[in-house]
Design a protein that fits this description.
alpha/beta
Length: 383
């Protein structure tokens, strides 16, 4: 059995939370996500354990001839490897995250028991389309005939895309944020985020908490809970205890990293892999709620992003440390600084993430905040 997860933002958190809950409910659970931060093997896990180096090597050895003939892309190869590994591991269920879009994504060969689309925002416009409606059509491509689909966020201007597709395929469509209301109540002393949750206007799951601290986890939580409710309806045996433990132990169960992750407290250092308009907007909203004397932002981007849309969202009252991750696709830090200056963002450039990060740590006082972001590749280098 498979669960298919697409969406511009939140699909990683949603996939990991669902996998964590299923694991706690006793299901042997495969999890395929991207990108990885430190190790390719993070993409392919069973019950939170990464595929071993030996198993990766064995897969390549066994398939080297066909790999040479077909010449699959990196992501296609990772997908095939994951599917074979899950089959050989005899998983009960696999949570499969799309790589890009949905309709033409190579993960879209599966026949899931549930499809999930977290939301639609601007990203990969050159491939998916230059309007939200075009991007939504690509995401809606994962909806399958007679298969329920959960939509994380009701977005009025594009809701018709999903309604039409679901009607055409006779698939039940559930809007998570119309079913579940999730509000943050408090951050607990054990540095967890605790939610107040209503299901069809009735208080449920009192004291549900998670170590994932981003404000945006409220939306993801509604998506996860609506998904779990539907999984229960179609025969999965999951109780409230599994949900509580799945949320609380998500990092231990799945080794999720880079989501509003606190790296240290003196000064407060936070990293987040948000890298598109929606992700950066969420980061800035949360930074605005924090108290600090000076904000230091270690920032780098990938060259194919919409710089203007993203840079105009960033706070002008911060000191920037422009840098580039150690990958070919990274935007040159001097060019990034130049574009950023047009939006009132000022700071120095650093040829490596490590130099930028060390400089920010050196400059920051205890009452300051250091934020690292703009790209998963930048975050990977500080973890």
């Amino acid at each position: 059995k498979t669960i298919h997860v697409a969406g511009t933002n939140g699909k990683g958190s949603v996939s990991h939370l669902i996998a964590s809950i299923l694991q706690d409910a006793g299901y042997k659970t495969g999890l395929f996500t991207s990108p990885h931060l430190k190790d390719f093997r993070e993409r392919i896990k069973v019950n939170g354990l990464m595929i071993t180096e030996e198993e990766v090597a064995e897969f390549i050895d066994n398939n080297i001839q066909i790999i040479k003939e077909v010449n699959p892309s990196f992501f296609e190869l990772a997908t095939i490897m994951a599917f074979e590994y899950f089959k050989n591991s005899k998983v009960d269920v696999a949570v499969i995250e799309t790589g890009l879009g949905g309709r033409l994504d190579c993960t879209n060969i599966i026949k899931p028991v549930l499809s999930i689309i977290t939301n639609v925002s601007w990203d990969h416009n050159e491939i998916l389309g230059n309007t939200l409606e075009k991007i939504a059509i690509e995401k809606a491509g994962i909806i399958k005939k007679n298969t329920p689909v959960i939509l994380g966020e009701f977005q009025k201007n594009i809701s018709h895309v999903f309604n039409n597709k679901a009607n055409e395929l006779k698939s039940e469509l559930i809007w998570a944020d119309k079913t579940f209301s999730v509000k943050k109540s408090i951050q607990t002393p054990d540095t967890m985020q605790m939610f107040r949750i209503k299901y069809n206007k009735e208080q449920v799951l009192n004291g549900l908490k998670t170590p994932l601290l981003g404000e945006y986890q409220k939306k993801n939580t509604a998506t996860v809970l609506a998904s779990v409710e539907k999984l229960k309806n179609i025969g999965f045996i999951i109780n409230d205890k599994n949900i509580y433990k799945g949320f609380k132990n998500v990092i231990n169960n799945t080794t999720l990293k880079g989501r509003w992750q606190i790296l240290s407290n003196n000064p407060l250092v936070i990293c987040d892999i948000g890298h598109n308009v929606g992700g950066i907007k969420q980061n800035v909203t949360q930074l605005n709620k924090l108290k600090y004397e000076t904000l230091h932002i270690v920032f780098g981007m990938v060259a194919d992003k919409d710089f203007k849309k993203i840079l105009k969202l960033l706070p002008k009252n911060a000191i920037y440390y422009f840098t580039k991750a150690n990958i070919p696709r990274a935007k040159n830090e001097i060019e990034l600084q130049k574009i950023a200056s047009e939006y009132g963002l000022t700071g120095k450039t650093f040829s490596t993430v490590k130099k930028a990060y060390n400089s920010a740590l050196k400059s920051a006082k205890q009452s300051d905040i250091v934020f690292v972001g703009g790209s998963a590749f930048v975050v990977a280098e500080v973890l």
